[in-house]
Design brief:
With about 350 residues, the protein is of the alpha+beta class. Helix content is about 20%, strand content about 30%. The chain has 2 domains: about 20-155, Aminotransferase class 4, branched-chain amino acid transferase, N-terminal domain (D-amino Acid Aminotransferase, Chain A, domain 1); about 170-335, D-amino Acid Aminotransferase, Chain A, domain 2. The protein has helices spanning about 50-55, 80-90, 100-115, 195-205, 255-265, 280-285, 325-335, and strands at about 20-30, 35-40, 60, 65-70, 75, 125-135, 145-155, 170, 210-215, 220-225, 230-235, 240-245, 270-275, 290-295, 300-310, 315, 350.
């Protein structure tokens, strides 16, 4: 189960199963709080079949990345933001919050041990998966009295394959909803993801790589693509604008989303949060106002959307190829993560010192 490669070749590792050799573990109990943090080999778990998390979905997680910099250093991108979101997810599910310092210490420990699995290939990264779940063996319908925190990692290549800028096709989901007002759409909990698979399967059957979620109330307003935030590049009276749906409580507040809003504004683009309907998306593409659309997230980074399929008619975004704004922002984000562009302010947490 462990990855014994000290330094892999530059062959694409894919996404999700090139695990590194170690994991961090900690335990929470009412008497001791969080305690017993340790680093050991990545091994299977022994769990009681009545573990409360298995039955009532008290499970939250995060996703963040470490990158090998142009100077040979290894840094983690904005882990403090993930630590705070991890706390927010725990609060929403009546779970104990892991202190930010403990979260960051676990990240530092694992990256310091396993960074050798990361090659010099700039398209590769070390994907970190923090996880917290309820461990008490009890089937009473209530929050658990015991929890476990784990942190594991895998070497990641392209989420959609080796061609990182290949446009994806998407299917507008009219039958299923990802999240509802007052629900858990703005937290990273396991229960959000399993129910999305049926819509993703429908997208695949329609020849699309991803599904686009609409709001649950009117089934009209665009919210997310799969597990990623969406951006629209629009040509307005004042020039190029970058628009993304606002955080209504049903969308995940993506760290990559926040980073791109900052980088785009610093580049000189007008940025805004705005509700965009499916009808408006189709119409403004036809009018040439919306010229590019891209999704973003930790795993996929920045991924262009080329074509849209919908029950009311399909359409192409721009000319169906990655546009200049998408290319520029993706490159700027990657350069920032690898230290090839200025750090906007504490975004890179250096764990391994530069080697050159």
């Amino acid at each position: 189960m462990t990855n014994t490669l000290a330094r892999p070749s530059t062959a694409g590792p894919g996404h999700g199963d090139a695990f590194t050799a170690h994991m961090v573990s900690a335990t929470w109990t009412p008497e001791l709080g969080w305690h017993g943090r340790e680093v050991g080999p990545l091994t299977p778990l022994t769990l009681h079949p009545a573990m409360l998390g298995l039955h009532y979905a008290q499970v939250v997680f995060e996703g963040l990345k470490a990158h090998r910099g142009v100077d040979g250093s290894v840094s983690v991108f904005r882990p403090d933001r993930n630590a705070l979101r991890f706390q927010a997810s725990a609060r929403r599910l009546a779970m104990p919050e892991l202190p930010v310092d403990d979260f960051l210490a676990a990240v530092d420990e694992l990256v310091a041990l396993d960074h050798g699995a990361l090659s010099d290939d700039p398209s590769h990264s070390l994907y970190l998966r923090p996880l917290m779940f309820a461990t008490e063996p009890n089937l009473m319908l209530r929050p658990s009295a015991e929890y476990r925190f784990l942190l594991m990692a895998f070497v990641a290549g392209g989420f959609f394959g080796d061609d990182a800028l290949a446009p994806v096709s998407v299917l507008i989901s009219r039958e299923h909803s990802r999240a509802v007002a007052g629900g858990t759409g703005d937290v990273k909990c396991a229960a959000n993801y399993g129910p999305s698979f049926v819509a993703q399967r429908a997208a695949a059957e329609a020849g699309c790589q991803q599904v686009v979620w609409l709001d649950a109330a009117e089934r009209r307003w665009v919210e997310e693509m799969g597990g990623m935030n969406l951006f629209f590049v629009r040509q307005g009276p004042a020039g190029t604008e970058l628009v993304t749906p606002g955080l209504t409580g049903t969308l995940l507040p993506g760290v990559t989303r926040d980073s791109l809003l900052t980088l785009a504004a610093r580049t000189g683009y007008a940025v805004s949060e705005e509700r965009i309907s499916v009808q408006q998306w189709r119409r403004e593409c036809a009018e040439g106002r919306i010229t590019e659309v891209f999704a973003c997230g930790t795993a996929a980074v920045v991924t262009p959307v080329g074509t849209v399929r919908d029950r009311d008619g399909d359409w192409t975004v721009g000319d169906g190829t990655p546009g200049p704004v998408t290319r520029l922002l993706r490159g700027l984000l990657l350069d920032t993560q690898r230290g090839a562009a200025p750090d906007p302010g504490g975004w890179r947490r250096v764990v391994v010192a530069p080697t050159r």
